[in-house]
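Translate structure to sequence.
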């Protein structure tokens, strides 16, 4: 039994690597698709196309048995997602800087800790600070 285990040890290692590579790739594809959906309007079309192409490439690699190809395509997808994350971060930084540069609203007597905006469904959303007072 021990000699049989030694005999198949190399095959077991290769199979384990393949399964781990597949699991990582599956997980990354799921996360990439979810991220792409969550950031649908925020990514520029070029990055969206890159993410889509990388997802398709990983899915195509998963159809085969070549773990080296799966790993390579997974790494490419990780790089593209990193680029997308950097682009979103830079965009958020620019927006924050623009908001700081713009003067605050000049409505007299308005509460400055309260901001109104519209939500994703077009409904009115109020962002306000509040304090809890004890009734003792």
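Result:
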């Amino acid at each position: 039994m021990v000699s049989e285990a030694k005999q198949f040890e190399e095959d077991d290692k290769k199979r384990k690597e393949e399964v781990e590579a597949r699991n990582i790739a599956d997980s990354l594809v799921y996360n990439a698709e979810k991220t792409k959906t969550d950031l649908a309007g925020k990514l520029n079309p070029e990055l969206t196309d890159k993410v889509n192409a990388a997802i398709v490439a990983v899915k195509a690699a998963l159809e085969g048995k070549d773990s080296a190809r799966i790993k390579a395509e997974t790494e490419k997808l990780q790089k593209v997602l990193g680029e997308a994350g950097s682009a979103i971060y830079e965009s958020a930084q620019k927006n924050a800087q623009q908001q700081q540069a713009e003067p605050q609203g000049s409505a007299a007597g308005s509460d400055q800790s309260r901001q109104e905006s519209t939500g994703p469904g077009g409904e009115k959303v109020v962002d306000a600070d509040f304090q809890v007072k004890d009734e003792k």
